[in-house]
Amino acid sequence: MLGTKKKGGSKHQHQLHKYAETTFGGNNLKHCVKLPDGEDLNEWLAFNTLDFYNQISLLHGTISDYCTDKECPTMRAGPKFEYLWADGREIKKAIKVSAPEYVKHLMSWIQKQLDTETIFPSKPGAVFPKNFVSVVQTIFKRLFRVYAHIYHSHFELVVNLGVEAHLNTSLIHFVTFSEEFKLVDKKELLPLSELINCLFAK
Q1: Coil, helix or strand for 85?
Q2: Measured in whole angstroms, how far is the alpha carbon of residue 3 from the centre of its chain?
Q3: How far is CA 82 from CA 27, 73, 153, in A?
Q4: What is the pLDDT of residues 176-196, one digit of tens each?
Q5: pTM for the full model?
Q6: Distance CA 108, CA 150 (A)
Q7: How far apart (Å, rounded) are the C-alpha atoms in residues 148 and 126?
Q8: 151 to 95, 100, 116, 148, 195: CA distances (angstroms)
């Protein structure tokens, strides 16, 4: 199981966390994801990127003993969608990897960016890179693939473990946030489009 990542411990980040907890607790997701009054957009995106990184790491951790190279030899979301891995640096050409290897590469790749002050500055008021939104979009696009894989390949296990409600809530939160800030293209959501429509109709 991959560990969760904490970045910084500033009073400001704690305030953002309390804000998110308060609004999310009221089940008003549209309000929960909106940029708080007076907050910097990049700081809000950074805070939520870390939060979803931790959420998805924990969710995958619940099924990681069963998401093995043998059981999941490719990173798939049903029969129509297969994801290859490339990070543009160590692995420049996209390669086929098992699902657990994909998740391992992904979480390591995200953590490296979270740890890089020039990409994810930890001090309030620090300058974010000009391409920061693009960086977040790529992270969110790839994080969604973990949701898609869990639902398509391990949902029965999720139900048996009793974490279905948590997974559904996390997905709804993720999609709502992504739509609010245009982080994930609609076509990327296709592997779970029917499920998403069903969850949002409830």
Answers
A1: strand
A2: 14
A3: 33, 11, 12
A4: 999 999 999 999 999 999 999
A5: 0.87
A6: 19
A7: 34
A8: 23, 15, 31, 5, 9
